[in-house]
Specification:
heterodimer, A: 655 residues, mainly alpha, two-stranded antiparallel ribbon, two-stranded antiparallel sheet, 3% strand, B: 190 residues, alpha+beta, three-stranded antiparallel beta sheet, 4 helices, elongated
Chain lengths: 655, 190
């Protein structure tokens, strides 16, 4: 042991890392009265590290070229070992990061953590927020789906309002529209920015440690007994918080991985078609609402950027000398109104401006304008005036003299839950919901449905629709033997070149992907009256309503359209399809195929089978994902409970 | 720092406290290790790369005395049609002359002795030896010659002069018919 002590001293004398760790992590004196809201700083740091690690490993497989990006993401999902885990960890991680950081910021706002001498600490935090927003935006572009592409187009076009705007936008794009050069540079910057964030986080921590953490009472610690060493008290408390956080994050990764995503982003980017509802990710919705509520392009953009930049001036806009809202009776209410205002802005941002609220008769546009006005008046009117006229409650002499009412904690739990509210109430079409074998946390694919569904795909759908992300050998999951798979593959032909250089066709091998039914897009359109039959590999993920939508589409054709609908030539009436007119003929009729087991295939049975099969092609990892999810949830449950008891044990010493 | 009687009470019961702390530490460590595994494993060959494991080769067009190179798992495979003289030469070489002693009959399939199938990568540091096309130098022993550090291989693909330490590797393969082989699938595997 002595040799280690000597080595430690030898190193420390030359490079004082051990002294540094001891002073800044172990002994670092921290107020003893920090509540759970102070956990979110360390959670943000941990999330940043997890995002960087998962991002680095994803980048090893991702291909940032316009014609490869979408497919390479699907390649990660289907072929790379644990690829689906890394991608869902990373994609949901972005949402988790913003939830954590927004709570961290509202905590700072409530307890006045930005006031002297912590102004620079706050401002560095705002820099981190801006870098995070840029990183998240560019990261969302990388999967190169429809939302990626059109999000990138809209956001980059914001810069066109500035002088020489068109030149700036072309410079950002590296062309005359969002394309491969844009994607490539966004990938590079998306990889670079997190390291800039680490650097600013370093400065943020230096600024923090200069004067130490603020605390819920908001007065400086005067007695030595007001502070306790960071380790083990706050390390164990942070570990407990991490356990709870990991449970929530894991739930989304393993059981609801596309909750925060948009189905449209599973449609490959198409520069010629904008999706009908284009919305940014939920964490940008309040700012998006501010942009849209101002009917002038220039002022809309200025207001949106202003909504973030105003945070830099917060330490000077708030004139009150009292930090904690606990002792500011009016500010407390103004603060909560502001929180609610931000949530409403998020809701407004997620809906079309023309949307009318039945109960009040006001339009979404108008609601956005009121809430935008309140957002800015909070900073420019309320905060300065309150500083002058509000009469704060008497401050206690030391932090030990205050006992906190339990009520506030409940408020924050409510706030945390309601922060997810913008996600609810999307305008989903009314579909009749079916019972699926694979739904719910325990659901698995019914193998009989899968095989019959594959038969229907092969005999009916495959005439027009491809399955390009699927390989023949993947069919092993349906219960086929290697010989059966070989025989199935041999029924398909793959175009290739022989030794003489002539184009020939060879039978497909199990390692090949399903060849499409048409040589190219032009041939597909020419054969289908100008319509392009979509690839079905991801169809249940790429449509709002998922399997229920596809099922309804297949079963709810109406041979006689309503009187007021004029069905165009070559089109068919289907009320489920957006617009009601679809080029696809009703594909399924009773008794169209012959099942091996002699079962009579009704239309509904066939639709159910083929949708089950397509749900599998969209999420072949579903069963592995759920079973791994249970192990992870159980692990984190044990971890959290253990950390809770260790925390109680250690904190017993603090009076 | 407030050290109180409750801590003293704790000290009286060290077993329970130690157990809790050790368990928590162990659970945390195991969890961290498990968290690392998906990332490490993601760098292993992906499912589709593992699946591309066999190549079928038609031997009929290869004349006696010549060889072709096919690609299997990204590596060159030398498929050589040996002459009677070359086979005899390989069979009569005494094992005592070899750096990595191995009789010729263990390096080819029974009844298919003209066909030598080896991974065309020098066992020294991974260069591709010359000698697989008629115009290339086959070296003193009539097999292959590595251009990087001068290792020599004989007509059985065995190393005869260093620095290579081992004979050229025989990949798993099977004769499907007398003139077709499947590389990547061993004898008896379906």
């Amino acid at each position: 042991m002595k040799i280690f002590t000597n080595l430690r001293e030898w190193i420390d004398y030359r490079l004082p890392v051990f002294t540094f760790i001891d002073r800044e992590l172990t002994k670092y004196p921290t107020p003893k009265n920090l509540n759970y809201l102070w956990n979110f700083g360390s959670l943000a740091g941990i999330t940043l590290m997890v995002m960087i690690i998962s991002g680095i490993f994803l980048a090893m497989h991702y291909d940032p070229a316009a014609d490869k990006a979408f497919d390479s993401v699907e390649y990660i999902m289907r072929n790379v070992n644990y690829g689906w885990f890394m991608r869902y960890l990373h994609a949901n991680g972005a949402s988790m990061f913003f939830i954590v950081v927004y709570i961290h910021m509202f905590r700072g706002l409530y307890y006045g953590s930005y006031k002297a001498p912590r102004e620079l600490l706050w401002m560095l935090g705002v820099v981190i927020l801006i870098l995070m927003m840029a990183t998240a935006f560019m990261g969302y572009v990388l999967p190169w789906g429809q939302m990626s592409y059109w999000g990138a187009t809209v956001i980059t076009n914001l810069f066109s309002v500035f002088p020489f705007g068109d030149a700036i936008v072309e410079w950002l794009w590296g062309g005359f529209s969002v394309d491969s050069p844009t994607l490539n540079r966004f990938f590079v910057l998306h990889y670079l920015f997190p390291f800039l964030i680490i650097a600013v986080v370093g400065l943020h921590l230096i600024a923090l440690h200069q004067h130490g953490s603020n605390n819920p009472v908001g007065i400086e610690c005067k007695e030595p007994t007001d502070k306790i060493p960071f380790h083990p008290y706050y390390t164990v408390k942070d570990l407990f918080g991490l356990g709870v956080f990991a449970l929530i994050w894991s739930y989304f990764i393993f059981f609801n991985p596309n909750f925060f995503g948009e189905p449209d982003n599973y449609i490959p980017a198409n520069p010629l078609v904008t999706p009908p509802h284009i919305v940014p990710e939920w964490y940008f919705l309040p700012f998006y609402a501010i942009l849209r509520s101002i009917p002038n392009k220039l002022f809309g953009v200025i207001a949106m950027f202003g909504a973030v930049l105003v945070l830099f001036f917060l330490p000077w806009l708030d004139r009150s000398k009292v930090r904690s809202a606990t002792f500011r009776p009016i500010f407390k209410w103004v603060f909560w109104t502001f929180v609610v205002d931000c949530l409403i802005l998020g809701y407004v941002g997620g809906h079309s401006p023309d949307y009318i609220y039945e109960a009040t008769g006001i339009s979404n546009q108008f609601l956005g304008q009121i809430t935008t006005f309140y957002y800015f008046s909070f900073f420019f009117i309320m905060l300065p005036l309150l500083g002058m006229y509000e009469k704060p409650l008497p401050l206690p002499a030391s932090i030990s003299q205050v006992k906190h009412p339990k009520k506030r904690k409940r408020f924050f739990v409510l706030f945390f839950l309601s922060s997810l509210s913008p996600l609810l109430g999307n305008d989903t079409p009314s579909l009749s919901y079916q019972t699926w074998s694979f739904q719910g946390p325990f659901g698995t694919f019914d193998r009989k449905d899968l095989q019959q569904g594959f038969q229907i795909y092969k005999e009916v759908c495959a005439a027009c629709h491809g399955l390009k992300h699927l390989r023949f050998r993947d069919l092993a999951a349906l219960g086929y033997t290697p010989e059966e798979i070989k025989a199935i593959a041999a029924e398909y032909k793959i175009a290739t070149v022989n030794d003489e250089g002539d184009a020939i066709e060879r039978p497909a091998l199990p390692t090949d992907t399903f060849p499409g039914p048409y040589k190219n897009e032009q041939a597909a359109r020419a054969a289908n009256n100008g319509a392009l039959p979509p690839d079905l590999s991801l169809i249940t993920k790429a449509r709002v309503g998922g399997p229920d939508y596809v099922y309804a589409l297949l079963t709810e054709y109406e041979s006689a359209p309503p009187k007021d609908v004029e069905v165009a030539k070559g089109m068919h009436y289907n009320p489920v399809f957006p617009g009601g007119q679809i080029a696809m003929i009703p594909p399924l009729i009773d008794g169209l195929v012959t099942y091996d087991n002699g079962e009579k295939p009704s239309l509904n049975q066939m639709a159910k089978d083929v949708v089950t099969f397509l749900a599998w092609t969209a999420e072949p990892e579903l069963e592995t994902r759920k079973s791994m999810g249970y192990k992870v949830l159980i692990y984190f449950l044990v971890f959290t409970i253990l950390m809770y008891f260790v925390m109680k044990l250690i904190w017993r010493r603090v009076k | 720092m407030t050290k109180t009687s409750s801590e003293n009470a704790l000290k009286k019961d060290p077993t329970r406290r130690d157990f809790l702390l050790l368990t928590a530490g162990a659970v945390g460590t195991v969890g961290a290790a498990y968290f690392a595994w998906p990332f490490i494993d993601s760098m292993n060959p992906a499912a589709d790369i593992l699946a591309q494991s066999t190549v079928d080769v038609d031997l009929a067009p290869i004349p006696e005395g010549q060889a072709i190179t096919v690609v299997w798992r990204g590596k060159p495979i030398f498929v050589r049609h040996r002459t009677a003289a070359e086979i005899q030469e390989a069979e009569k070489t005494p094992l005592s002359d070899l750096i990595d002693p191995e009789p010729d009959k263990e390096r080819v399939k029974k009844d298919h002795t003209p066909w030598l199938i080896v991974v065309g990568i020098c066992t020294h540091l991974g260069c591709i030896p010359t000698g697989n096309t008629p115009t290339q130098n086959r070296g003193k022993y009539g097999g292959w010659l590595c251009p990087c550090h001068g290792s020599l291989y004989d007509t059985s693909g065995r190393v005869r002069r260093g620095p290579a330490p081992l004979n050229l590797v025989i990949p798993p393969y099977t004769f499907l018919t007398d003139t077709t082989i499947r590389i990547g699938m061993g004898e008896g595997e379906a």
